[in-house]
Amino acid sequence: IISPRTNIDFGFTVPGLLSDATLIVKGKELHVNEQYLSNMSSVLRTMFDNISPGTRNTVVLEEVKYQECVEFLRWIYPSNVKNFEEEAIHRLIALSKRLNVP
C-alpha cells in the first residue's frame, strides 16, 4: 500500500514534551500521552484509571507485540507519517479492535 519505513520508533522510546505515561510492551518502554490515548481507547482509559494514585503512570500491555504497538501509536498519533505495509494495516485493525479504538 505505502512504502515501509526502516525506523518505526518515531520518538516513543524517549520521553517527549507531552509524554506523561509509559506503556510497557515485551519489557520495553514506550512514552505516551495518557489523555490522548485515553480519549482514543476505552480499554487504555480503563487501564490508566485503575492505576493507584501516587504510583508511576505505567500500563503493561500483555499479549501485544512491541512492533505492532509502535505501529499502532504511529497510526493513531496525529503528527506521525502514516507509511504502512498492507500486512501492518491488518495488524493495526486487529489491535484497534482489541483496544476498542473507533
Automatic annotation (TrEMBL):
Q: What PANTHER family does this protein map onto?
A: BTB DOMAIN-CONTAINING PROTEIN, HELIX LOOP HELIX PROTEIN 21-RELATED
The membrane-spanning stretches of this chain are none
Chain ranges of the BTB domain: 19-85
What are the leading ranks of the lineage?
A: Eukaryota, Metazoa, Ecdysozoa, Nematoda, Chromadorea
Source species of the chain: Pristionchus mayeri
For this entry, the protein name equals: BTB domain-containing protein
PROSITE patterns xrefs: BTB (PS50097)
